[in-house]
Structure formats: structure tokens, C-alpha cells
Amino acid sequence: MSESFREFVVQRSPALSRSAYLLTGDHQLAEDLLQSALARTYRHWRRIREGDPEAYVRRVMYHQQVSWWRRRRVAERLDATPTERGGGDHSEDTALRLSVVAALRRLTARQRAVVVLRYYEDMTEAQVAEVLGCSVGTIEWHHRMSRLLPDPL
């Protein structure tokens, strides 16, 4: 394994893992998604390492997630009960986390990807369009559509 790829994986895996979770809504599926994306990235590492390998991995994760979603059409599994971390009252944090999960669950895979990349990854609309391989207008449309959904609370 290339040392530069190993360094990339060690440095960027936590952030990529969080993005994968937001795309899938399930910790195990997120791990599978990231692993699959990193395996595909490694095959092309010599070509992409000088560019923006993180954007490449995110693009692969998004396309792989959409492919899995289309193929399986399995209902998403999101934990209804948060894991206990001990100490203090976390009810407000839990309520916020559950409402965010509920809101993401109501979005289509494409809308979820736009929201995750735009707000969680703090990308511009142009960057999101590049990662998802579509026009900025398409990103704007998905963003508008995601805001039209009713508030879950």
C-alpha cells in the first residue's frame, strides 16, 4: 500500500466517516460505504493523489450510496434511541439529533447529499455540483425542494 494513501486514510477517515453516516443514516452502512469508496480510490490513487483525493472519495461515496439505494430499496434504519454517554442531561442534544435525523430521512438521496455537502461539509454550491457531477442550477433546485418539506416537530 502506498504510504501517501495510508496517510490520506488516517487523516481524512474521521471526516469522511461522518459524511458517510449522514448519507446512509446507519453506522454499519456508513462503514461499508467508506470502505468501498476507499477501495475504489486506491485503485486510481496514482492518478488522483496530486489533485483533490478527498473530493474524489466523496463523489465515489455519493454515487455508491445512490447505486445501493436504487438496487436494494431497503428502508433506512436509523437508531431511535441515542447511545448513552453518561453524565448530565443530554435531552436537548438528543432532541436536536433526532429531529435532524428525521428531517434527513424525509429527503431523497440526492437532496440529502446536497444538504450534507452544502451545510455539514460547508461546500459552496459550485463545489457540491462538482462533487455530484451536475449543474449549480440542479443543486439550487434540490436545495429549494429540501427547504419546502414540512417541519417534523
Oligomer: single chain
Radius of gyration: 16 Å
| Low-pLDDT segments | none
Write down the secondary-structure element order.
HHHHHHHH
Strand-residue fraction? under 5%
Average pLDDT level: 81
Annotation field: number of helices: 8
Strand-pairing-aware structural class: mainly alpha
Query: Could you give the count of β-strands?
Result: 0
Write down the overall geometry: globular
The level of helicity is over 70%
Give a description of the structure:
The structure is a single chain. The chain contains 8 helices and no strands. It has 153 residues and is an all-alpha fold. Helix 1 (3-24) packs across helix 4, helix 2 (27-43) packs across helix 4 (53-72) and helix 7 (125-132) packs across helix 8 (136-147). It is globular and about 45 Å long. The mean pLDDT is 81.
What's the short version?
The chain is mainly α and 153 residues long. The chain contains 8 helices and no strands.
